[in-house]
UniProtKB/TrEMBL annotation:
The keyword Oxidoreductase applies. It holds the Pfam family GST_C_2. This is Glutathionyl-hydroquinone reductase YqjG. It comes from the Bacteria. PANTHER family: GLUTATHIONE S-TRANSFERASE OMEGA-LIKE 1-RELATED, GLUTATHIONYL-HYDROQUINONE REDUCTASE. It is an enzyme of class 1 (oxidoreductase). GO terms for cellular component: cytoplasm. Residues 54-164 form the GST N-terminal domain. InterPro entries: Glutathione-S-Trfase_C_sf, Glutathione_S-Trfase_N, GST_Omega-like_C, GST_Omega/GSH, Thioredoxin-like_sf. GO terms for molecular function: glutathione transferase activity; oxidoreductase activity. Keywords: Oxidoreductase. It comes from Ruegeria denitrificans. Its EC number is 1.8.-.-.
Length: 337
């Protein structure tokens, strides 16, 4: 287990904390690395299993798109709602079922796929783990098609590995470097990553899924304090969080803010403000949305279906519609004034 609190949550007294109503994120168990003798960096060798509603998966799909790895790293997409109580294997499992109908659209979602990575046509992500004797069931999964093994299932590490080996893996020639070699920039990224993970990425879940009022209020306050901090940071005219260059800090912030106005504001009880109410953060969000295939790396339909489709009645809200529909609004930085 890593001690990096920008990657995973402290597991101290996890049973007691969960018992009193705190949402505590678990730890990913597969932590191998591309670029080792066991898992050499080769184009066409690796595969991703993801769900487009999941913000941790969104990190990975962003890296794949931004680095130009779409042709060399194949990918399967799970349905955004997990299995129900009527599933023969059990509830709350990610499944690769492209014919499943979404309540939001009344039709299957075209991005969803069967399992093409393992060669076994597995239906459930859980079955991929079971082949390695693990009881985990989370996404994303970085998978080695040659050895038939899971390489890694921690999104932060997958992003870092794809960036470090993008050239050898078959990335585009004009790709950015997400984690620059400059040590001072790395230190700035590390500080941002820590605050963003604790208060924004994981903080949204702590607010939305904790059942204790005091824990919710603490997470709510920290979330909006960080939004204000980031808005102030961007107010000096910089294009991205560390300056003029898109980095890993921007990539890790984007999935949560992409979801905030249309989903988290209501679903995670984070109704203190919209991102649209923060002038500089909104413009940053629009800028990132327009950057290097970012828009194609996610799906608002999957997000809305995934979060609201698993609520108590499964009904997906149709809004917000003002000032315009999302994600179309992200093409309009001028909306924030």
């Amino acid at each position: 287990m890593s001690n990096d609190i920008s990657t995973e949550e402290n597991q101290t007294e996890i049973d007691r904390r969960r018992a009193r109503g705190e949402f505590v994120r678990g730890v990913s168990g597969f932590r191998h690395a591309i670029g080792t003798p066991e898992f050499p960096a080769e184009p066409g060798r690796y595969h991703l299993f993801v769900a487009l509603n999941c913000p941790w998966c969104h990190r990975v799909t962003l890296a794949r798109s931004i680095l130009g790895l779409g042709d060399s790293i194949s990918m399967d997409v799970a349905f955004p709602n997990r299995t129900g109580d009527d599933d023969p294997v059990g509830p709350n499992l990610w499944e690769f079922t492209p014919d499943r109908v979404a309540s939001l659209t009344g039709a299957p979602l075209p991005e969803c796929t069967v399992d093409t990575g393992t060669g076994a046509g597995l239906r459930l992500a859980k079955e991929i783990y079971q082949r390695e004797g693990s009881d985990e069931q989370s996404l994303p999964i970085l998978y080695d098609k040659i050895t038939g093994r899971i390489v890694n299932n921690e999104s932060a590490e997958i992003v870092r590995q794809l960036d470090a080996h993008a050239g050898t893996l078959g990335g585009s020639d004009d790709r950015p470097t997400i984690f620059p070699k400059n040590q001072k920039v790395q230190e700035v990224i590390a500080a941002l990553n820590e605050r963003i993970f604790v208060t924004i990425n994981n903080g949204a879940y702590k607010a939305g899924f904790s059942s204790d009022q005091a824990i919710y209020e603490q997470a709510f306050t920290a979330y909006f304090e960080t939004l204000t901090y980031l808005d102030d940071l961007l107010s000096d005219g910089r294009s991205f969080l560390t300056g003029d260059t898109f980095t890993e800090a921007d990539l890790r912030l984007f999935p949560t803010l992409f979801r905030h106005d249309p989903v988290y504001y209501l679903r995670m009880k984070l109704n203190g403000a919209r991102i649209l109410d923060y002038v500089y953060l909104w413009r940053w969000l629009c800028r990132v949305y327009a950057f290097n295939s970012v828009a194609s790396a996610g799906s608002m339909t999957h997000c809305r279906q995934g979060y609201f489709g698993r609520s108590w009645n499964g009904v997906v809200p149709l809004g917000p519609n003002f000032p315009m529909r999302y994600p179309d609004a992200y093409q309009h930085p001028e909306l924030a004034v």
